[in-house]
Structure formats: structure tokens, C-alpha cells
Amino acid sequence: MARNELRPVIRLRSTAGTGYTYVTRKNRRNDPDRMTLRKYDPVAGRHVDFREER
């Protein structure tokens, strides 16, 4: 199906080393490389970068 190919489910893992993850979807046409978002890490108690893992 086109939904799974164009907008795959990805995991965003915290760079703070806490092991906390977010699960989201991304558009492969707009973001072909690995995605990095700045989000809140409740384990660290602050905003940190979350990088896509495959």
C-alpha cells in the first residue's frame, strides 16, 4: 500500500542517553535523511534532540 511506503513509522530516540523514545510517521519525500527533532524528555526533565533510528 502507498501509505506504508510513503509515510513509514519511525522511532525517535533521545540523545540524552535515557532510552526514552517517541513513535511518529514521516514523509519520505520531504525528509529522505534521518530526522532530528527537539522534544521533551521526561526522564531527563528537559528538551533534548531526538534522532531517528531505523
Automatic annotation (TrEMBL):
GO biological process annotation, one example: translation
Gene3D superfamilies, alphabetized: Ribosomal protein L33
GO function terms (MF aspect): structural constituent of ribosome
Sorted UniProt keywords: Ribonucleoprotein, Ribosomal protein
GO cellular component, one term: cytosolic large ribosomal subunit
InterPro entries: Ribosomal_bL33 (IPR001705), Ribosomal_bL33_CS (IPR018264), Ribosomal_bL33_sf (IPR038584), Ribosomal_zn-bd (IPR011332)
Pfam families: Ribosomal_L33
Family classification: Belongs to the bacterial ribosomal protein bL33 family.
Matches recorded under PANTHER family: 54S RIBOSOMAL PROTEIN L39, MITOCHONDRIAL, LARGE RIBOSOMAL SUBUNIT PROTEIN BL33M
Name the UniProt record assigns to this protein: Large ribosomal subunit protein bL33
Gene: rpmG1
